[in-house]
Every structure is written in structure tokens, then in C-alpha cells.
Design brief:
This protein has a two-stranded antiparallel ribbon. The protein is flat, with a radius of gyration of 22 Å. The protein has 13 helices and 2 strands, in the order αααααααααββαααα. The longest helix has 22 residues, at 95-116. Helix 6 crosses helix 10. It folds into 3 domains: 5-116, Four Helix Bundle (Hemerythrin (Met), subunit A) (Up-down Bundle); 122-197, no CATH class; 217-268, Arc Repressor Mutant, subunit A (Orthogonal Bundle). The chain has helices at residues 5-16, 25-37, 41-51, 53-63, 69-86, 95-116, 122-142, 148-155, 159-165, 198-215, 220-229, 239-246, 250-268, and strands at 184-186, 193-196. With 269 residues, the chain is mostly helical. A hairpin with a 6-residue loop joins strand 1 and strand 2.
Length: 269
């Protein structure tokens, strides 16, 4: 049920009257629904940022060091605002559990850049963590580190991508309380991500549901092109093969996939 403007104003006034007051689950849900529905949205988001600022400061203290602290705080507030706009109270999770992931995620780039005086693109950081995790398993099994060619074959990626990622190995992302900035539990001896944290699992399940809903916005030919090209039905096929199966050209399949990606990307923002 969408809250009324009067409900939002009264709740915001009540919460801000006591600096030590923490919103209940129901109050968090009401303000998030108001922000998402555009009912006193600016006031609702501002109040949520004010009430949960302690969570941002706590995580910034753990994730950031030195001069990057203020930048991490600002990034954390951006992540908190994003969590307010995307949180689904009907799933039964607490808002703070959901928000932790987005706060840490937005602080991630600031933390790495502040600690190492360089910028590492997010996709490169994920790729390096994936390579490191696979290499550790290989070393445990064979007693030696794998060669770049073996990593590329084992992960199914290009050798050039493996070589590009090697430089990141000298710049480890910092961790806090057994969590890396990516939201994975970390082995304290090796600092290797092992399994998703509860916060990451909450966000992942929520994002999967959003993706399923977004797929319903695609036309049937677009869904078929996505499924067959990426092998979601068992085996990936080339655009030419998909086109031959459905009596059209590879250019038509390429157009369908590109259009589908634009729709999905817009729905997932």
C-alpha cells in the first residue's frame, strides 16, 4: 500500500525529533515505499540517510584509511540512497541487511583508489578475484601455481585477460570483519573469497527476481535469441546458427540481442 504524504511527513518529523532513534522494520518499509512511489520522496530519502548515517560511518571506518575516509563516507551515502530506491520490503528482509551490500559496493572503488593511488575498473577486480580463487584451488590440488595458459583454459577466458589481470595481484583490496568489499566471506589466512555473505545473498536473490520480471518485457523472438545464443537451454550457439534455426540472418539475431540488452539494462538500473 502506498503511504500518504501526511503519513510520511509525520513519521519523518517523529524520527528526526530523537537523534538516537532507530527506525523499525515497518518504518523503514514505509519510507522506502514512499521514496519509490514519489510520495514526499526527497523528504523520505533524506530521513533515511539521516537515520542510517551511523551505518555508513561505521562501515567507512572499517573500509577506508587516511585521506580516503571522507570520500568513502560520501560514496556510502550514495549507496544507501540507492538501497532506499531499490529495497523491496515484501521479501521479508531487514533494510539494514540489504543496505550493507550497496554501501560497501559504492565504497569499494574509493577504498581501492585511496589505498593504492590507482583506479581499478570494477570488472577487472571481479575478474582478478575469480582468477585468484581458481588458482588457489589448482595449487591445493597440484602443489604448484598454474601457468597463465592453464588459467585461461580452466576459466574459459582469453589469455590476454589473464595477463592483464596479473598486475592487480599486487594490489589487494582491504577487508573488514571477515568481509571483502565485494561482500564475500574471507579466509583470514589467505584473504581468499570463499562464499557469499548473507548481505550478498539477499541482494542476489532480489536482483534475480528483478531480472526475471525484466525478461517478461522482451518479445518472444528477443527471448529466444538470448536463450539460444548464451546457451541458457543447454548449449550456446553462434548468431548464424540461431538465425538458421529460425529462418533469419545473423544480423537480425544480433539486432534482437542488442535491443534485448538495452531493455534489460534499463530495467536493472
Amino acid at each position: 500500500m502506498t503511504p500518504t504524504p501526511a503519513q510520511v511527513r509525520v513519521l519523518c518529523r517523529r524520527l528526526r525529533s530523537d537523534p538516537k532513534r532507530i527506525p523499525t522494520t515497518a518504518q523503514d518499509a514505509l519510507l522506502c515505499r514512499a521514496a519509490q512511489a514519489g510520495v514526499e520522496a526527497d523528504l523520505a530519502i533524506e530521513t533515511m540517510l539521516w537515520c542510517h548515517n551511523g551505518l555508513v560511518l561505521k562501515m567507512a571506518g572499517r573500509l577506508s584509511r587516511g585521506s580516503s575516509h571522507e570520500d568513502a563516507v560520501q560514496a556510502g551515502r550514495i549507496g544507501l540512497a540507492k538501497a532506499v530506491r531499490m529495497f523491496d520490503p515484501d521479501r521479508g528482509h531487514r533494510f539494514s541487511t540489504y543496505a550493507v551490500y550497496w554501501i560497501a559496493s559504492t565504497m569499494r572503488r574509493v577504498t581501492v583508489q585511496g589505498n593504492y593511488q590507482t583506479h581499478i575498473p570494477e570488472h577487472s577486480l571481479y575478474r582478478w578475484l575469480r582468477i585468484r580463487r581458481w588458482s588457489t584451488g589448482y595449487q591445493d590440488e597440484h602443489g604448484r601455481l598454474p601457468e597463465p595458459e592453464e588459467i585461461a583454459a580452466g576459466l574459459g577466458i582469453e589469455l590476454a585477460e589473464v595477463e592483464d589481470s596479473m598486475g592487480i595481484g599486487r594490489m589487494e583490496p582491504c577487508s573488514f570483519d571477515g568481509l571483502s568489499p565485494l561482500g564475500f566471506e574471507v579466509d583470514s589466512m589467505r584473504n581468499i573469497p570463499t562464499s557469499p555473505s548473507p548481505e550478498a545473498e539477499v541482494v542476489f536473490s532480489s536482483e534475480v527476481d528483478r531480472l526475471h520480471k525484466a525478461l517478461l518485457d522482451l518479445t518472444e523472438p528477443q527471448r529466444i535469441a538470448i536463450i539460444e545464443y548464451f546457451g541458457l537451454d543447454g548449449e550456446p550457439r553462434s548468431m548464424r546458427e540461431v538465425g538458421e534455426r529460425h529462418g533469419c540472418t545473423s544480423q537480425a539475431i544480433d539486432c534482437r540481442i542488442r535491443t534485448a540488452f538495452r531493455i534489460l539494462r534499463k530495467a536493472m538500473q
